Amino acid sequence: MDTLITGNLWCDISDHLPNFLLLECEKSVKYNMDNRPFIWLHSLINVGKFSSLIDNIDRSNLYNYSSSNEAYNYYHENSKNVTATVFQR
Questions:
Q1: How is residue 57 annotated by DSSP?
Q2: DSSP state of 6
Q3: Which of 2, 6, 51, 62 is at a distance of 20 to 30 A from 17, taking alpha carbons?
Q4: What span, in angstroms and rounded, lies between the C-alpha atoms of 21 and 2?
Q5: Do the beta carbons of residue 50 and residue 87 sit within 8 Å?
Q6: How far apart are CA 54 and CA 24, in angstroms?
Q7: Overall domain count for the chain
Q8: What is the pLDDT of residues 57-76, one digit of tens each?
């Protein structure tokens, strides 16, 4: 039989009550590691590639835009391309 445990974590120094949920399953589930289309692998190698490519984005162009929105769009597109390159789905 599966077990569900829920509750709140409480502390005097905060007025927020974080909730938790634990689900214990008796049956074992085996995952096919080759069939993972919606998972980005944040391995040390991929994170290193991401950091390197983000660091190499040419930021000197950011100061040439007349509006902050244009500068943001430039950086956002570049960082989105880096993310898509490294963490392909």
A1: S
A2: E
A3: 2
A4: 13
A5: yes
A6: 40
A7: 1
A8: 988 888 899 999 999 999 99
CA distances from 59 to 3, 45, 47, 63, 74 (A): 52, 24, 20, 8, 9
What does the block give as tokens for 5?
A: 């445990």
This prediction's pTM: 0.53
Q: Is 78 helix (H, G, I), strand (E, B) or coil?
A: helix
Rounded CA-CA distance 89/84 in Å is: 8
Burial annotation 10-48 (CB, 10 A radius, 16+ → b, else e): eeeeeeeeeeeeeeeeeeeeeeeeeeeeeeeeeeeeeee
Is the distance from CB of 87 to CB of 40 less than 8 angstroms?
yes
Backbone angles phi, psi at 9, to 5 degrees: -95, 135
